[in-house]
Amino acid sequence: MNRIGKKWKILLFIVLIFVFLWLVVIHPLRVLHHNEKILEEAARRYFELNPGQLPTGERVKTLSLLDLYHQSYLKTDLYIPYTHKTCSVNNSWVKVRKEENEYQYYTYLKCGILSSFTDHKGPEIKLNGKKQIQVNMNEDFVDPGVKSVVDRSDGTMDVSRVSISSNVDTSKVGIYSVTYTALDQWNNKSVVRREVQVIQPLSNTVKFLLGGDTHFTGEPKNNYIRLSGMLFRIYGIDPNDHIVIVADEDVSNVNYTKLEQWLKYYYNHLNDTTKKMIVEKTYCNDSLTEDQLDSTTCTSYSKKIKITVPSIVDINNAQEENDNFMKPYTLSWTSNRKNKSNAYVIRKAFYGKNFGKSYVAYGVNDNYGVRPMFTIKGDSLIVGGDGTIENPYVFGDLRQAKAGSLVNERLTGEYISIDGELYRIVETEKDGTTRIISDFTVASYGGNVECSASADKEVITYNPKDPGSVAYFINNQVPAYVNTKYFVNHEIKVPVYKKKIVYGEEVEIKKYTVKLSAPNMYEMFAAQPRRESTSLSYWLVNSSKAKRITGLIYTMGVPINEEIPAFEKANIRIVAYLGKKTTIVNGKGTYESPYKIK
Questions:
Q1: Strand residues in 439-484 grouped as ranges (E)
Q2: What residue numbers bound the domain in which 308 lies?
Q3: Number of structural domains, the chain?
Q4: Are residues 535 and 577 in the same domain?
Q5: Which spans in 26-123 are helix H?
Q6: In the chain, count of helices (H) and strands (E)?
Q7: For 233-258, what is each residue's pLDDT tens digit?
Q8: Which position among 38, 196, 242, 441 has the lowest Cβ density within 10 Å, counted as fewest Cβ atoms?
Q9: Is residue 440 domain-shared with residue 501, that is, in the same domain?
Q10: Are 457 and 594 spatial neighbours (Cβ–Cβ below 8 Å)?
Q11: Neighbours of 266 (CB within 10 A)
């Protein structure tokens, strides 16, 4: 019984294997071969009724399963075995070719994982070089070409049989392709593409623009770039082919002794991509006497640093006749000291007793403009722009906001328009609100709104609860002149100093909750905006315990560094906070196309 039982088990196992093979292999292949015959017969009927469509010479005629369906040469669908899914109508076909004066039919049917054994693959194309290559803008593109073409039926083919098409345009930055197409004797097609990226390295562009010089001079119209949402000018190129750039405006005002400390604050407001582009290097910082101010050669350099301010040598080298793009409208620090107590400032034109001078020395504890200057990698890739102020060179350091994007996700320096009034983003707060500053002073019916500090008080404080304070006027009266519906109440910090207003030397911080306030002298974009044709005054939030010392940008567009007179009047620039759910409707965040919000 044991032997008989074992035989039955073996027989049962063999039967199961056969059933398995029948169901999984034999029957599906029988169905496939049956469908192949149906497809071939349909193609033969087509050519019997359309003999003029038969190929001549060595040509090959292909009829797809879809063609035969559309022309009703197939009445029933061809299905994948055991399913209700049809075989591929686009990848199944019959090919006809005349061989020895007789037409031969070759059928290929693709049904799921099953397919005919007929040669249906195009030749294998191998390229010379990489499939992804870069070429500099305006350079000639030479295609590396095809290395080999091999077909499993035709064997090694002549590379000249590969057709090549290309849309590469090296006059424009972009990603293009070169397409290589090969057909075997059965018209089985292979297509391979090479990606060609036309790039514009910054150093190449600057070299082309400078034409052999190392820096721009005069008032060039083609050296603007935008990084981290802010506008810069290209100063020049260094010996390592890195590019020196300078902010297009004074960003803030600060005392000379705290420049290094303030520049760290500024650096923290650059986006991560920009930070990675910055090259640490040494910068000119000569100490100069009055008779050395026309120097164009540097003799003393700083340690390696990330950010500085322009030197007198830098500014002098940019002079061309009466023009110099390195001279700002406001008083701006240079990197050069006169002595321990004084350092030099630059302005496009000095007036009064300093008329005609290029540089004037002021006390190192006075507050004047700071215009950051730093160096970025020469191989940084320009992705757009033509270098004009309207269309500056841009890099891949930010993505343009889309409709519905939150304002608090945007960059420091980008512009926002509210009821036609222009603001700039200072920073996003931890609570999700966005601190913004008006780009102009508040106006009403064409005139500027202004107020005066208390004339009867020796100590002028910024206090929104004091009806005699500038702060009270800004928070309670200015809303009559500006649209505040997007602004939310927020806590502000009022820095109070013992005597002079000096960066980082506050003796007290007072806190108030308000909707509107004045700018802090030391924050981003609190300096006079560069596009003002006329310098305007405006109050600042900074306060002092000393007699009649307070934060004020004077009519010259620079901070006042002395006691203010009684009844002194000044205009208003405001700082406000946008709610954390404020969204962008449209715009690009630039001066020319600011964001509109809702």
A1: 443-444, 447-448, 450-452
A2: 213-376
A3: 4
A4: yes
A5: 27-49, 65-70
A6: 8, 38
A7: 999 999 999 999 999 999 999 999 99
A8: 38
A9: yes
A10: no
A11: 18
